[in-house]
């Protein structure tokens, strides 16, 4: 029996992700010299956009993490929140 399903990616904008490990940057997160320049492993975020060649972040995702931190990350730095949540309960 046919179903009306549509394929989608867990990395589409609007999906939840979590940091696999600490994500560092050479610039402080809030532009404040005293601010930390890392997002800790396990921090949850929402994918806002995919990178493109014009933004200079090809193969990156723009993610808004808890604490209103908007950050460009590579795919190997995040994973879908669903897999993280269910994997920890086993």
Overview of this protein structure:
With 90 residues, the chain is mostly beta strands. It has one helix at 81-88; strands at residues 16-19, 23-24, 38-39, 44-50, 61-65, 69-73, 78-80. The protein has a single domain, classed as SH3 type barrels, CATH 2.30.30. Helices cover 9% and strands 31% of the residues. The longest helix has 8 residues, at 81-88. It starts with 15 loop residues before the first strand and ends with a helix. The mean pLDDT is 79.
Keywords:
single chain, 90 residues, mainly beta, SH3 type barrels, five-stranded antiparallel beta sheet
Beta-strand percent range: 25-35%
Q: Number of helical segments?
A: 1
- Ends distance: 34 Å
Point out poorly predicted stretches. none
Which architecture does the CATH hierarchy give at level 2? Answer: Roll
* Structural shape: globular
**Structural class by sheet pairing and helices:** mainly beta
Please count the beta strands (DSSP E, at least 2 residues each).
7
State mean pLDDT (0 to 100 scale).
Answer: 79
Supply the CATH class: Mainly Beta
How large is the radius of gyration? 15 Å
Element pattern in H and E: EEEEEEEH
């Amino acid at each position: 029996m046919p179903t009306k399903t549509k394929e989608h990616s867990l990395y589409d904008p609007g999906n939840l992700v979590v940091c696999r490990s600490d994500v560092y940057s050479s610039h402080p997160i809030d532009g404040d010299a005293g601010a930390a320049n890392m997002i800790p492993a396990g921090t949850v975020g929402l994918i806002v956009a995919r990178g493109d060649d014009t933004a200079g972040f090809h193969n990156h995702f723009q993610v808004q993490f808890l604490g209103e931190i908007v950050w460009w990350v590579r795919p190997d730095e995040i994973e879908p929140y669903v897999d993280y949540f269910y994997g920890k309960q086993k």
